């Protein structure tokens, strides 16, 4: 148990240190480079944003994991199409910057914890953006939501990818990551009496569905 805890802390420390260190270096570069062009400055700022965003997502996942252990889901009726539209708007700019089309379809309702469901969808969309080629579809039906991309698909079984605190270079877990993303998604589904499933969708990539009871 002690060894596992030490390994966990070491992984989390590494995952936070890496983007923060990269961000500090980017800031130092911008401070010292008075003559760089606008395009290069924009690129450095984008890299800075990417690194800090990664650290922020890790902290959010840690807070979500803590909340799931200490609080029951706060269920409320949710119009799933409206929720997916909000998620699309949240990620639309990043998708456009990568040349990715983000589409929403379907209809349905569910009783769910809005915060937890948004966190699970955020993790799935982040994952899809990392691997997609050109298109991501957010779908919903009665009691379920899913995220599909046209990337290479899962390279390992979902059961393995959704285990916490993994550091292997697996699809769904960025290099050096504590691997909380898909673990959070699976636990959110389970806390709602549901489950997380993967399949090959029409786009040919990964298609991950959250069933909510």
UniProtKB/TrEMBL annotation:
PROSITE patterns found in the cross-reference section: HIS_KIN
Organism for this UniProt entry: Calidithermus roseus
Protein name as catalogued: histidine kinase
GO cellular component entries: plasma membrane
UniProt catalytic activity: ATP + protein L-histidine = ADP + protein N-phospho-L-histidine
Pfam families linked: HATPase_c, HisKA
Xref: SUPFAM superfamilies: ATPase domain of HSP90 chaperone/DNA topoisomerase II/histidine kinase (SSF55874), Homodimeric domain of signal transducing histidine kinase (SSF47384)
CDD domains (UniProt xref): HATPase, HisKA
Keywords of the record: Kinase, Membrane, Phosphoprotein, Transferase, Transmembrane, Transmembrane helix
């Amino acid at each position: 148990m002690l060894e596992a805890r030490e390994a966990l802390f070491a992984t989390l420390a590494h995952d936070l240190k890496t983007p923060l260190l990269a961000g500090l270096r980017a800031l130092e570069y911008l401070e010292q480079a008075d003559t760089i062009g606008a395009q290069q400055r924009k690129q450095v700022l984008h890299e800075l944003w990417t690194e800090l965003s990664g650290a922020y997502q890790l902290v959010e996942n840690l807070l979500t994991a803590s909340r799931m252990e200490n609080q029951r889901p706060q269920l409320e009726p949710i119009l799933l199409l409206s929720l997916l539209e909000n998620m699309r708007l949240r990620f639309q700019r990043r998708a456009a910057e990568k040349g990715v089309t983000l589409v929403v379809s379907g209809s349905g309702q569910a009783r769910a914890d809005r915060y937890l469901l948004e966190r699970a969808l955020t993790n799935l969309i982040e994952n899809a953006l990392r691997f997609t080629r050109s298109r991501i579809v957010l779908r919903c039906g009665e009691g379920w939501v899913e995220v599909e991309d046209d990337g290479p698909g899962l390279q390992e079984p979902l059961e393995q990818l959704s285990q916490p605190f993994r550091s292997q270079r697996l699809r769904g877990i960025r290099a050096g990551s504590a691997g909380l993303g898909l673990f959070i998604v699976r636990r959110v589904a389970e806390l709602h009496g549901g489950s997380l499933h993967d399949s090959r969708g029409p786009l040919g990539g990964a298609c991950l569905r959250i069933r909510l009871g």
